[in-house]
Design brief:
Layout: E1 3-6, H1 12-23, H2 31-36, E2 47-51, E3 54-66, E4 69-79, H3 88-102, E5 107-111, H4 114-117, E6 123-124, E7 130-131, E8 141-145, E9 156-160
Parallel strand pairs: 4-5, 7-9
Antiparallel strand pairs: 1-2, 2-3, 3-4, 3-9, 5-8, 6-8
Length: 162
Amino acid sequence: MFTLRPERPDDGPAIEALLDTAFGPGRFAKTAYRLREGVAPVDGLSFVAEEDGALIGSIRYWPVSIGGRPALMLGPIAVLSSQRGRGIAVGLMQTTLEAAAKAGHRAVVLVGDEPYYARVGFSRVPMGRMTMPGPVDYRRLLWRELGPGGLEALQGLIGKAA
């Protein structure tokens, strides 16, 4: 049985190896990665899944600004391919989305497959409501409210947090 726990500093090399395997070196060219450059992940929201002492999954969140308002960006989330289908990613998301809401965050955005992320409450951002500073398939731009009214005022450019 796997367990979920907050990420520790010594998890870094295992997380990078997992992300390299899951996404390859091209991941650094994606617009979402450029929003993370030089920015630390949000404290208390980076978690890992482990089993028998081995890291098998990881999730992180980053601070972003959407039209000048604070929000979170989920990602990357990765699970070892041999461990997929066990509910690890959904468990990581449920645990961390709950923690984000308790910490007072109001909204989360991500770029991903809507049918997959809809399982934890994400839906497509209405076309034209938000833009990103680089190429992105806007059909894959998703959001989720964490607190009442968290999405109402969000519109505009998604950029690095100030």
